[in-house]
Amino acid sequence: MQNCLIKQDGGICDVVWKDGHESSYHSTWLRYNCQCKKCFREFSGTYTIDILSLPEVLSVTKAEVHNEGKALKTWFQGESPHMTEHDADWLRSQCYCDNCLDCDIIKRDVINSQKCAGKLPTVDYNTIDKDEERFKFNVLKQVVDSGICLIQNVPITPGQVLKVASMFGPIYSTLYGNIFDVLDRKAENAAYTNLLLPFHQDQPQYESMPGVQLLHALRFDSSVTGGESQILDLFRAAETFRRENPKYFQTLCEVPCKFETMDKKRSHPVFQEHQKPHFVVDYFGKLVAVNWHPGIAVATRVRFDDVPRYYEAYRGFLKLLERKEGMFEFRLKTGDLIIFNNRRVAHARSAFENNGGVRHLQGTYINLDDLKSNYMTLAIKLGENVTPPKVGNGSSF
Ligand SMILES: [Fe+2]
Ligand SMILES: [Zn+2]
Ligand SMILES: [Zn+2]
After folding, report:
1. From ligand 3's centre to the CA of 98, what distance in Å?
2. Number of domains making up the chain
3. What's the gap in Å between 204 CA and the centre of ligand 3?
């Protein structure tokens, strides 16, 4: 930090940085985010400041650069003993000029992250013996960058998927329990049959749809024909949709879809419904969440006039997905485990015939926020320079 300057009768404080960049901070913003020991508890990262005890209109009377440019200190009218303090690096990272905001948004955009090019990003499970943290980071990085990672040579012990999942976050239990078996047993749920499963995310009937899915192939006999897995980046598909048909895109942001899972026959009967739009766009106009599962999209409850335009747009996106642009298809082998971002990646499965063989997968979920947190904390620990990723969980950052 080179210099600071009070502007607009103390309503704004400008900071000039050593590289020439200039930042402007509102006095309210500075005071409410004061990082002095009285206002901010560093160990817990919480603010103890009583905003309503401060004057409604705040005005900076004095501003100084301290500690060889490493800190900014400001004083406010009518608050003489209190000195507002900010760390320079933190202040710079929070600059909200259009340029810094746009850079930050672009850098973190899901769509700018890598996509699978020809080969599934793969990590060998055996590398865990050499360096467990490095193994975890490598897997997390692929999930963050490409939306999916294939872990090969995972021991084929029933329940192993829970052990692997727990390395990346606590298990997220759903109506299917902690762990679910994907096996052709002609069941009610289409996943437990040999039928084709169209592109979908798992369980959007939850307010908080599972963030990360893990699927472990305990057994996938070579005699089984079909049963290939397909994945597709829904964020890319939605952006293409927005470009090609902005009107339809807007409709699917506005008119919600109802997702429902009703299962009276289970030992624990289920009644789940959640109505929400297919696409969520944030304050900056960026797509931040997608909700898609035609298999459990039931009769939506919306206003009369919105029904035709909803179905028109819905068909439009179904048609776009049918083009399968950027789709990636692979066949799991016994011992393979895939971990993928359920908020970003849609998955599908082709129909299969057992031909006397067995296709048995075990799956579980973990929370996406936990995965992101583990990725960032591991990156810091391992000295990796990474950008905090936007993961498609509805958040702008
Ligand atoms: Fe699924
Ligand atoms: Zn303070
Ligand atoms: Zn800036």
Report:
1. 7
2. 2
3. 38
